Amino acid sequence: MIRTQVYLPKDLYRNIDLIAKREKKPKAQVIRDTLEEGLKKKRTSKNAGHVLLEIAAMAKKYKWKGPKDLSTNHDKYLYEEA
């Protein structure tokens, strides 16, 4: 383990202390557990790359097709009016 020092507001410290006493755990364990839960939630949030991969998976699943010349004429499809 790596030791670190953090400054906490009094209210947050009191909450940690109450939870530690209620769960009969050291305050450090309560802090580690809470940080781990919070980081898991942050990691599971989706970024643009994840969303694009999901769209690609849906296209494959539902057999969506695009124009066969899309890679060479992408400007035409993006900028010309239909």
Write structural notes for this entry.
- This protein has 82 residues and is mostly helical.
- The relative contact order is 0.05.
- The chain has 4 helices and no strands.
- The protein is rod-shaped, with a radius of gyration of 25 Å.
- The chain has helices at residues 10-23, 27-44, 48-61, 74-79.
Brief sketch in words of this structure:
The protein has helices at 10-23, 27-44, 48-61, 74-79. With 82 residues, the chain is an all-alpha fold.
Question: Secondary-structure blueprint of this entry?
Answer:
Blueprint lengths: L9 H14 L3 H18 L3 H14 L12 H6 L3
Helix and strand run? HHHH
What count of helical segments does DSSP give? 4
What is the overall shape?
rod-shaped
Mean pLDDT score: 92
- Which regions are unreliable across 5 or more consecutive residues at pLDDT < 50? none
**Quantity of strands, as a count:** 0
What composes the largest sheet?
A: none
Radius of gyration: 25 Å
Strand content: under 5%
Fraction of helical residues:
55-70%
Structural class: mainly alpha
The N- to C-terminal Cα distance equals: 61 Å
